[in-house]
Structure formats: structure tokens, C-alpha cells
Amino acid sequence: MTQSNFQWKQCVELGYADGPDSNDDMSPPICFNCGKEDVKLSRCSKCQVATYCSRECQLNNWKSGPGGGHKFCCGEYKRVGGDMMIIFPEDKETARNDVFSKIRFYACPFAVYRSNCAVTKNKGSSSSSRGFLFLQSDSTLAEMSLPVPILANGRPCTKSRCVLMHFLTVEEYKQELCKDDFELATVGKELAKCVKEYKEMEEVAVMMRFRCGHLAVGITKLVPDYNLCSTLGKEYFEKAGSAVQLNIDDE
Q1: Per-residue pLDDT reduced to its tens digit, 10-24
Q2: In angstroms, how far is the first alpha carbon of the chain from the final one?
Q3: Each residue of 90-104: pLDDT tens digit?
Q4: What is the DSSP code (8-state) at residue 228?
Q5: Are 58 and 42 in contact (CB under 8 A)?
Q6: Sign of CA dihedral 75, 161, 229, 129
Q7: CA neighbor of 92 nearest in space, from 212, 249, 250
Q8: What is the pLDDT of residues 186-225, one digit of tens each?
Q9: Distance (Å, rounded) from C-alpha 34 to C-alpha 143?
Q10: Distance CA 242, CA 237 (A)
């Protein structure tokens, strides 16, 4: 496995969004530090994305901007570029891993808890209860992968960056998801294989879908471990519904 504990098996682009303007129509850039607009702006020499109205603003934002300063976000802005679109497959993989790392301490316990509930419902049959963690977002992969909710034009995201979590069996995937969106069937074969092959009490199968149409399936290691996931899952989600929404920018 990679350092992220993920084995990605298949990725496709469904092309739901026509371009990068899913959030703020990519309005003209502003200073990343003070918010000035309609002035001459210079760009960060490293990422070529972040813009500043003065040297002072650039230095201040580098050390003490959102997320601890631009120095901790520069690489991610370089990845999405000025048009908020991730081009290269390896960058998309890193972006997916970054998104999952933000929610894994909730996502993995959720998956274990819902899986255990399915086993109970099916009277102890784990084979008929095997499923996958379905993560979907109304934001693009580029938007979700940034460390802070600030777009490449320096403006804040106009909507919350959220992930909706479900735990579904392959049969539910076919009857519910593919019925509403037939394009999801393009990963059906690989998804079924992931659900069949992941190691119980060690791993979970995952499908991620973003507003831009980026869709990926794979297997990831449970973090934290199974026993802690079981404890946390019951504590966090016993009174929750079958679907849970997470805001990745909540403290």
C-alpha cells in the first residue's frame, strides 16, 4: 500500500461539471492576505496561484495566513492551479488521499459501525453484509483537497465543504445508486471485487464521488484499528441515521 494506506483500483471522470467554476464562478483574484481587488497583484513564485498586492502582504500570509500560513498550503495550490482543476492522475490520487485523511477518524469508525449493524440485521452473516464506504461531495475534488476553504482566486468558498457518508452493499449500489445515475455502473465490476477482497477487521472498501464527476474505488486500511473503530463508531453514530454528513472545515 501507499503511505496513505490506500490501494486505488479504478478511477473515472464522469464529467458532471463543465469547468472549474463550481463555487464562485472564478471571479477575478484578490490579495490572499488583505483581500484587496482591482489593484495590480503579483503571484507566489512557487505555486503561481496565490496573489498579493504587496511584498508585505505576501510575507505576512506566508507565515500567518489561514491554515498556519501559505507555506503549508503552497504545494496544494500549485496542484489545483489557477483554474481550480487537477490534471495529472498522480495529483488526483494525492488529492483523494488528502481528502480522506481529513475525515478518516470518522469515516472508518462509521464504516465499521454500519457494517456491524448489517451483520446483526442479517443474523450474523458477515458474507451477506459485506459492503463499502460511499463518500460523496457537492464540491469538486480540487476544492475539497485544499487545506483551507480559500479558492485559487483568494476568495472564500461560498458553500461548506462537506462529505456525505453511506455504507452500502453491492446490491444496494445496483438497486439504488445505479438506478439514479447509470454512469456509476462503470465501476461496478471493480467495486464488487473490492468488496469481496478487502480484509475484514483490517480494511474497508471505498468509493468516492465528487461534484466534478471524479469517481474512484479502492481499499484502505482501517485507521484507527478495528477495535477502536468499533468503540468510536458506536459512540459517534449509534443515534445517527444511515447517512452522516461531515463538514471538513469544522473545528
Answers
A1: 999 997 654 444 444
A2: 30
A3: 999 999 999 999 999
A4: H
A5: yes
A6: negative
A7: 212
A8: 999 999 999 999 999 999 999 999 999 999 999 999 999 9
A9: 21
A10: 9
Cα 53 to Cα 207: distance, rounded to the nearest angstrom: 42
| Average pLDDT estimate for 156-169 | 95
Q: CA nearest 107: which of 12, 187, 207, 200?
A: 207
Dihedral angle of Cα 135, 141, 146, 152, to the nearest 10 degrees: -150
Q: How many whole angstroms from its chain centre is CA 87? A: 16
Q: Which three cell numbers stand for residue 1?
A: 500500500
Average of per-residue pLDDT values in the chain: 92
Amino acid at 24: D
Selection from 70, 29, 67 nearest residue 51 by Cα: 29
SS3 state at 53 = coil
Q: How far apart are CA 156 and CA 158, in angstroms?
A: 6
Buried b (16+ CB within 10 A) or exposed e, 32-47: bbbebbeeebeebeeb
